[in-house]
Amino acid sequence: MFKLVIICLIPLLVKSFIDRNGSPPICLSETNNACQEEMKKKNETLGRISHIYPPLTDSLKNYTDQCRNVMECASGLECFKGKSQREIFETSCDDVGTRRYDFDSCLYKIVTKIHSNDHNCTGGFSFENLFTADTIFKTEKTCVLNIGQGVCKTDDFNFLQDNYDGLIELYTNNPASDIDRWDHPSEKFYRMHCDVLRSDFVQKSLNIRILSVNQKNADVQKVLEIGQSAQKCTQKYLLVQSNDHYYKMYMNVQTLVAVMTDIFKHRPRLFEYRCLTSFSWYEFFGKVVECIDVGDAKKCVLALITLRCQKEMMADFKNQTATTIPRNESNVPVFSFSMYKNNEKHKFVFTMNNNSIYF
Description:
This is T20D4.11-like domain-containing protein. By secondary structure, this protein is α+β, with helices and mostly antiparallel strands. It has helices at residues 2-14, 28-34, 36-47, 57-74, 85-92, 104-115, 130-139, 141-151, 154-162, 164-172, 178-181, 185-206, 218-235, 245-266, 274-277, 281-294, 297-308, 310-315, and strands at 320-324, 335-342, 345-352, 355-358. The chain has 4 domains: 2-92, no CATH class; 98-173, no CATH class; 201-316, no CATH class; 318-358. α6 packs across α8 (141-151), α7 packs antiparallel against α10 (164-172) and α14 packs across α16 (281-294). The longest helix is centred in the middle third of the chain and has 22 residues, at 185-206.
């Protein structure tokens, strides 16, 4: 009886701790059952890794070795026949290297501070290239630590200071093969740079009203520069996703500014529309970017303006009248048309001679 209980408990002891966003990994139960010993060793190693501080080189290597053992076992299963190495990896391994640990907020704050150009030691820093980022963190250790001391929690800063060289080497060492990069901290570290650019892009475009968007506006030009850098950053390595909302913004921001400049140039009356005064550039762009990404940008923008400003556009026709009088003909009624706003309702008035017909 005791042996039976132990046997029943074994699958629970070796169940994978895999935690991923999106759809669950395939063949997980088959892998748990067929690779019990490998899963058990991997999960024991995983259990020794903190959720607050990222594993350093030796600890990460130890876990990666156990992960590879599970992959080797799983690759021979019938369930995985015809499946990719990536699918086997996602079932066999956990996001240990690329996971965001509590400590990583410290590095994110440092990267954000560097992006603000508050420190002389970060001159020439570029967010477009991972290896340029490496240069700053590897050659300007004192500067980075000074920044960290001001923005990080005490425990996080102490961890950074005590493990700086090994940690930065791990976070900036870009593996050559895809399988090594799938769960490597360098991907996470590089993504931080893209996230900082995205945050700056959003914040600066939120501070610009849509009626101020034109190609000569210096603030608009700054957002365009950030968008270009963010686009290049996102395109690197494994980060780009064609359906990503922000990536579509980066791809189409130049087009939007050109279209808005042209529309406002030929329709100056729009500057008087109250319906547009409260619209931030970011809010407006967010509503049209999906349309612009697949359609005619000008039509997309005009459609949103029309939808947003129906009342004011209708009011523009108030008391406007068109009259047609036939030439050299008698007994033909005079026809006129007027459109105006009355008691918050739109009325159409057709006049034939002196008789008015209301609709």
